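Task 17 of the worksheet. Students: predict the tertiary structure of the chain below and write it out as structure tokens. Keep your answer in the requested format; marks are given for formatting as well as content.
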Amino acid sequence: MNNVDKFLTLFSEFDMVVTPKRRTTETKKKDFKVTSTQAGQAKSDLERELKRLTQEYKRAQRSFKHNRISRQELFDFEWRIFELQEEIRRIDEESK
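Model answer:
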């Protein structure tokens, strides 16, 4: 007898009614207006972070060559660089 059968025999007299939760209010999409100065500041911060991460990625490549870090850790650096580049690209497109 497995656990499910035990549970069903022990609690056979209980009825469970599951009803989905209904929303009381409609969800509204929030529109944020970003000014050009905010976009410029965010872009410069992201570019500074990208430069720092690129330097860190170069150090990670050297560490990978010396078998100090795994390929997965190196891929994580590459992925983070890709994410930052995409964020910068998205900010450029939204600010136009």
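Marker's comment: Helices lie at 3-10, 36-65, 71-95. The CA atoms of residues 8 and 15 lie 11 Å apart.
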